[in-house]
Prior knowledge:
Layout: E1 7-16, E2 19-25, E3 28-29, E4 34-38, H1 45-52, E5 60-65, E6 68-69, H2 75-80, E7 83-86, H3 98-109, H4 127-136, H5 152-164, E8 170-174, H6 182-195, E9 200-204, H7 208-214, E10 217-222, E11 225-230, H8 232-237, H9 239-245, H10 247-257
Parallel strand pairs: 4-9, 4-10, 7-8, 8-9
Antiparallel strand pairs: 1-2, 1-3, 1-5, 5-6, 10-11
Amino acid sequence: MAPEFVLETRGLTKEFRGFTAVDSVDLRVQQGHIHALIGPNGAGKTTVFNLLTKFLTPTRGEILYFGKPITAMKSNEIARLGLVRSFQISAVFGHMSVRDNVRVALQRQQGNSFHFWKSARCLDELNERADQLLAEVDLLGFADTLTIELPYGRKRALELATTLALDPKVLLLDEPTQGMGHEDVDMVVGLVRRAAVGRTVVMVEHNLSVVSRLCDRITVLARGAILAEGDYAAMSAHPQVREAYLGSEAAALEEAHA
Length: 258
């Protein structure tokens, strides 16, 4: 029998020298959903995300992936299982072409190491798949461009392509639209929606308009604990959620839902 949840935490807790940053979080992510973690500043979103991707070790609690415990595994080990994180930092090589960045990621997915001194012909067999991935994120026309020359929004698209090259089952996106103008935000929303086909996505995102447009389910954190959970309509009307956001952020919740 298949597990009900793709990704689940039970009593997930993280303490830093007596300060509880994440407090007994029970998160349940359903297969095929785009699931957002939101909350006011200091709510513990980033810490939960770092625990899920094993950049931090929990003080207590358990993390399950397709019903199997992964709490003791390292970040590179869970990535090989298909739980892959993107948009944490720039993960592309600026002085390589856009296509070469994707080919390197594809070689990683095959379990091989990339050696800069080898002939480019060693990677030519990966061109077809690389170009397919670039087409998915609307970058095929930039394939031979040096990555350093790409506009910011296009670099984020390339990061998504290199992540998809690792063939993720669950894609973890860390603030995918951070620092973007409206045009780039719209582009990335479309890319995430496309990347989510046949996959599960978990994202931390401050832009509530993006959350309202993309997400099937939302977990709202406050002071390290789950405050509420549901779809965007329910969360934007939830009195405790609105109180937690206060002022302009509460107005943004309502505006995004309008």
